[in-house]
Amino acid sequence: MSRGFVKEEDQEEAPLIPPRAALPDGVTNYVTPKGFELLQKEKKELEQQRTSIKIKDEVESRRAKSVIDGKLKLLNDRIVTARILDPRSQAKDEVRFGASIKFKHKESGELQEFTIVGVDEADVKKNKIAFIAPIARAVTGKKIGETVEFKLGPETRNLEILEISY
C-alpha cells in the first residue's frame, strides 16, 4: 500500500538510539573481566526495564520498548564480540591492556595515573581510558623508566613511565 493512503498519526518515526562508544572497524573488542561483568549487568537491567514498562498508551509503550530493544541489540553486538583479557595474565614489566600506570610530564613535573581498559569501560572521571585512545597507544609496550613522546595537537609532551601495576 502506498504511504499516501496512511493516516498521519500512523506514521511513527523510528526512535533515536544513542550509539555506544566508538570501536574502529577491524579492532578487537578487548574487555577486562570486570568490564565484561558490567556489560552483562547492563543487559540484565535493560531486560528488566523492558519487562517492567507499564505505559497504557500503546504507541508510547511501543516506542519505549523499541528504544530498549535498540540498546539491547547494540549491547549484544558488543557482548558477542568481546574478547576478555585478564590483566593478571599480562607481562608485569611493560604497559599492556589492563595496566594501571603512573607517569610524569618531564616538562612540568606533573604526575598522572590511568588504567587502560576496554571502550565500554572507559571513564575519564575514574582515570580509565580506552586502549584505543592515543595516549594509551603511545605508552603500550613501554617499561618503567622509559620516556614516551606524546603528540597532543601541535604540542609534544615527554612522559616518563614511573609505575606499572595490574
List the helices and strands and how they pair.
Blueprint: E1 29-31, H1 33-51, H2 58-81, E2 82-84, E3 100-105, E4 111-117, E5 128-130, H3 134-139, E6 147-152, E7 155-165
Parallel strand pairs: 1-2, 4-5
Antiparallel strand pairs: 3-4, 3-7, 6-7
Helix pairs in contact: 1-2
Could you give a quick summary of the protein structure above?
This protein is an alpha/beta fold. Helix content is 30%, strand content 23%. Helix 1 (33-51) packs antiparallel against helix 2.
Description:
This protein is of the alpha/beta class. It has two domains: 25-84; 87-165, Transcription elongation factor, GreA/GreB, C-terminal domain (Chitinase A, domain 3). The chain is 30% helix and 23% strand. It has three helices and seven strands. The protein has helices at residues 33-51, 58-81, 134-139, and strands at residues 29-31, 82-84, 100-105, 111-117, 128-130, 147-152, 155-165. It has a five-stranded mixed sheet. Helix 1 runs antiparallel to helix 2 (58-81). It is elongated and about 60 Å long. The termini are far apart.
- Class per helix and strand makeup: alpha/beta
Name the shape in a single word: elongated
Biggest sheet strand order reads: 5-4-3-7-6
The level-1 CATH class of the largest domain: Alpha Beta
What is the β-strand count?
A: 7
What ranges have pLDDT less than 50 throughout 5 or more consecutive residues? Answer: none
User: What integer value in Å does the Rg equal?
Assistant: 22 Å
Task: State the CATH architecture of the largest domain.
Answer: Roll
- Work out the strand percent: 15-25%
The number of distinct helices, counting runs of at least 4 residues, comes to 3
Largest sheet entry: 5 strands, mixed
N→C terminal distance: 61 Å
CATH level-4 homologous superfamily of the largest domain: Transcription elongation factor, GreA/GreB, C-terminal domain
Helical proportion?
25-40%
H/E element sequence: EHHEEEEHEE
